[in-house]
Amino acid sequence: MNQLKFSLEESEIPEKWYNILPLLSLEPPLNPKSLDPAEKEDLLKIFAKPCVEQEMSQESWIDIPEKVRKIYRHWRPTPLFRARDLEDMIGTPAKIYYKYEGVSPPGSHKPNTAVAQAYYNKKEGMERVTTETGAGQWGSALSYGANQFDLPSTVYMVRISYRQKPDRRPMMEAWNGEVIPSPSKKTEAGKDRFNEDSENPGSLGIAIAEAIEDAAKHENVHYTIGSVLNHVLLHQTVIGLETKKQFKKAGDEPDIMIGCAGGGSSFAGFSLPFIGDVIEGEKNTNFRVVEPTACPSLTSGRYRYDFGDSAQETPLIKMYTLGHDFVPPPIHSGGLRYHGMAPIISKLVEEEVMEPVAVSQMEMFEAALEFSDVEGIIPAPEPGHAIQQTIKEAKRCRETGEEKTIAFLLCGHGHFDMEAYREYYSDELEHIEYPEDEIEKSMDKLPDVE
Amino acid sequence: MNQLKFSLEESEIPEKWYNILPLLSLEPPLNPKSLDPAEKEDLLKIFAKPCVEQEMSQESWIDIPEKVRKIYRHWRPTPLFRARDLEDMIGTPAKIYYKYEGVSPPGSHKPNTAVAQAYYNKKEGMERVTTETGAGQWGSALSYGANQFDLPSTVYMVRISYRQKPDRRPMMEAWNGEVIPSPSKKTEAGKDRFNEDSENPGSLGIAIAEAIEDAAKHENVHYTIGSVLNHVLLHQTVIGLETKKQFKKAGDEPDIMIGCAGGGSSFAGFSLPFIGDVIEGEKNTNFRVVEPTACPSLTSGRYRYDFGDSAQETPLIKMYTLGHDFVPPPIHSGGLRYHGMAPIISKLVEEEVMEPVAVSQMEMFEAALEFSDVEGIIPAPEPGHAIQQTIKEAKRCRETGEEKTIAFLLCGHGHFDMEAYREYYSDELEHIEYPEDEIEKSMDKLPDVE
Question: Which residue ranges does the record assign to the Tryptophan synthase beta chain-like PALP domain (chains A, B) (predicted)?
Fold first, then answer.
């Protein structure tokens, strides 16, 4: 019988993360006031020391602490599936594989870094960690990770999501996370807005500002971040390292790797261990990074220094950006609604190692349902973007007769996104136009730093 | 490092189901009018022939069709975990293992039989299958299973659940299931109630009657059932057969096996392959079957002939029952709100092979959260009952110093039950009393057949 699932033993969970920084020349983050390279000390105020060191490390391999690996074992190694039914449905000579991160307790790849960040902060004597969350994936992962080390967590959740995704709050509370609808009266960043209108819907920008302020003004409290930064992408490389071992077991290797990107950490985790081989000239794998047409930083943004947040308080980072002021239309892929992109992914796109593609919400839902129809798993809308591109590539192979091996990352399940599917079926979803005017306007406000 | 997860290869998915019927002397179902043993022909009107044959088969092993095994591979073999963190939290010398069925696309053990029933019906030329669903677990599984064979499915969903669990409907629709709130105007069984009040909240009894009528009155349409009957329990034995192989790999074997029971199919699937060894005198494993105090058929019911449904249309079956008229209080474990119990489980309890235990909703939630706190996975409320009993046994071992090996079945995740957890945290859940008066009243209406 033709194998569908390529599993690994617990002992095959990677012992080191893969760091691609030594192979890239990334521009340093800049202090937003002086425009000089940001000081390590600034970062140490809000992040754990090992995270700051990893952020700029030139070591190719970084040990995964034994206590982090121990917790990874609750759901890792994650399975690599061969999507034979999808191949049959398309009628393609291509082989399609997918790595599935939805088996983690919070349901996505996010705990790969949440557990690591929680561990380092606990070890440093922190008494609490903070973060922000939009749709709730990252907040859930952080609560889960922190709770594994008996570390209290505070999650500022964008108020409109807090109302629209009521199931995420009890999930975070099950893991002893404190969930605060943002803007709140707990911080300077939220107070005025809250007092003006206690039902203010909030934004990711405000929630980030609240979480950072909460960390900065308390001595033993640190902030944690779910994507974009180098150390977060590093922690995610367990995904790609496992995938490599699984392809070896399958006696195959990918020609094309596909993933969605909001901040970019899941696709980086999946692809970086393979990209190392490409940069070192050992392979010529292709990489497609897929974003929503509603928030197209890579396909419509500029490669420039910009703020990581709308409050203009983070260091300036060199990345593809739509401008820190850009507010994406309300698509259901909350995890892809970010104005910028991880510096590592940005650099790889700039150097044409990765090819960016944009997919509309409607195309995405159609593809996600074609997938669940045959493969069973109902994907989150975010990886639906990767599925759409995968089906497209497989159809191209059907035309050309190429027997390519395609691998995509299914970074999470859609159990908390069923309302989005209901809207799609009920024809309540409208086509969301490419937000051309908004992008132009926010591009005008890019900081004047080349 | 101490292993946490015991995985099996795809090739280790069982090739046969285990049938315990040859080891038990079950009383036959009776025709509700004549009180003679029910005719095979009556069952063939609504069920596929292989299912009816399995219902009374005296073969110990029954081949799993290759096409069913092929679909099992989408999520099977499921993992067996060692709950070391739970052991540490309790401080027990006992070893705790759990078999986790929540990795299936619908999120529970239910597709083990849904896929099989769909396959047999497709092969028999059926053009559609019907069923009822309460909270939605079974309806989701049936839609998923039927869709794998391109077989349309119609699910009559109790209207109050249809409203309270809005996320289940789009899930079933993703698998091309037709979801009809019950009572509906589509059937004689539902029409009058619907016409009287189109917002009638419905009941499982009405929904069963609608699904059976829909099947009976259309030539190429069959009914499918999610629990209670022998063939359903048979299909679930893949769970226990895998568990046996996994214990062999772990170099251990269970002293006590624990599971929750509504109709009884999940715990039967988990335990029957081990119970065979006990009946044949090879082992002396203990079995605890856990039910809610709100619906205590095994601990407070009688072992008698009764109807399977409140409409009194099914054959009479010999089982532990609270009376077919009994309407359990609205606990959050929808899957455990059934007035009767599978004849196989009932017999094993009557013969004292299994020991029944009842757990209250409050105790259950407390235990479920102790579990997710350390192990991560948030359980559905139904297996929360098994967790409560497991923790109790492990604490007993702490007192006595016994190094027992305890295995429980985690039959599904709680991703669609987060509202129940929210109510628990918010102190909105009240203690639900043992429904003594209602039980007495419905017991009075038991049919007069010994």
Answer: 73-412
User: Can you tell me which residue has the tokens 């994650």?
Assistant: A78
Amino acid at B354: M
CATH domain A76-107+230-443 topology: Rossmann fold (3.40.50)
Task: Collect all residues of chain A within an 8 Å Cβ-Cβ radius of residue B146.
Answer: none
Q: Rounded to 5, what percent of chain B is helix, strand, coil?
A: 45, 20, 40
Q: For residue A348, give the 3-state DSSP assignment.
A: helix
Neighbours of B160 (CB within 10 A): 17
Strands annotated E in A76-232: 80-82, 95-100, 128-133, 153-158, 177-182, 221-223
* Fold (topology level) of A46-60+111-223: Rossmann fold (3.40.50)
CB distance from B427 to chain A under 8 Å? no
- Residue A89 three-state SS: helix
**Cis peptide leading into A273, omega within 30 of 0?**
no
* A111-125 average pLDDT score: 98
Q: Which residue has the tokens 């709770």?
A: A147
ipTM score of complex:
0.94
Helix (H) or strand (E) holding A321: strand A316-321
CA distance B194 to chain A (A): 23
pTM here is 0.96
The residues of chain B that CATH labels 3.40.50.1100 are 66-107+237-443, 111-225
- The residue type found at A12 is E
Residues forming a β-bridge with A409: A99
The class level of CATH for B111-225 reads: alpha beta
B158 forms beta bridges with B182
Among B5, B105, B418, select the one facing A170 at the smallest CB separation: B418
Give the model confidence (pLDDT) of B255-296 as tens digits: 999 999 999 999 999 999 999 999 999 999 999 999 999 999
Alpha carbon B430 to chain centroid distance?
25
**Per residue in B354-368, is it b (16+ CB within 10 Å) or e — as a string?**
bbbbbbbbebbbbbb
Asked if residue A179 lies in contact with residue B425, where contact means CB atoms within 8 angstroms, the answer is no
- What are the two backbone dihedrals, phi and then psi, of residue A84, each rounded to the nearest 5 degrees? -60, -35
- Provide the sign of the torsion angle of the four alpha carbons A268, A269, A271, A277, taken in this order: positive
pLDDT greater than 70 at residue B1: no
Residue with tokens 């192990």: B375
CA distance B92 to B297: 31
Nearest of A151, A153, A213, A205 to residue A179 by alpha carbon: A153
Q: Under an 8 A CB cutoff, do B174 and A375 touch?
A: no
Q: Where in chain A is the domain with CATH 3.40.50.1100?
A: 46-60+111-223, 76-107+230-443
Chain B residues close to A70, C-beta within 8 Å: 1
With an 8 Å Cβ cutoff, is A74 touching chain B?
A: yes
Nearest C-alpha of chain A: how many angstroms from B30? 39
Fold category of B66-107+237-443 in CATH:
Rossmann fold (3.40.50)
Judge: B425–A167 Cβ closer than 8 Å, yes or no: no
Average the pLDDT over B332-355 and give the result. 95
